[in-house]
Amino acid sequence: MPMYPFGAFGPEAIAEMTAVLDTAFEELQDTGEPAVVRERIANRIIAAARLGERDPARLLEAALRKTD
After folding, report:
1. Are the C-beta atoms of 46 and 37 separated by less than 8 Å?
2. How far apart, in whole angstroms, are the C-alpha atoms of residue 62 and residue 49?
3. What is the pTM of this model?
4. pLDDT tens track for 16-60
5. Angstrom distance (rounded) from CA 68 to CA 56
6. Residue 48: per-residue pLDDT
7. Which string of DSSP letters, residue by residue, matches 6-67?
8. Per-domain residue ranges for the chain?
9. pLDDT value at 7 more than 80
10. Residue of 26, 25, 52 lying closest to 39 (CA atoms)
11. Are 46 and 54 spatial neighbours (Cβ–Cβ below 8 Å)?
């Protein structure tokens, strides 16, 4: 398994995170400026992934959680 620097993600993780981002954006796109909403969702997903979360369902929960 390849090693990535802290904060970097492999291709599989990026693919999963992108799929979660698209799903979450579909659910939240009517809640504000699309670029801002997408950025907030992405930041939530990245934050959860940096803590080690890789389960798509849990990443989606993190993306939809309104903590920021």
Report:
1. no
2. 10
3. 0.79
4. 999 999 999 988 777 778 888 889 999 999 999 999 999 999 999
5. 20
6. 94
7. TT---HHHHHHHHHHHHHHHHHHGGGS-HHHHHHHHHHHHHHHHHTT---HHHHHHHHH---
8. 11-64
9. no
10. 25
11. no
Closest CA to 44 of 65, 14, 16: 65
Instruction: Output the pLDDT for position 33.
Output: 80
Residue type, 13: A
Contacts 24+ apart (CB under 8 A), 29-33: none
Residue 16, amino acid: E
How many Cβ atoms sit within 10 Å of the Cβ of residue 60? 20
Backbone angles phi, psi at 32, to 5 degrees: 160, -165
Per-residue model confidence (pLDDT) at position 5: 53
List of residues 6+ apart from 67 with CB closer than 8 A: 44
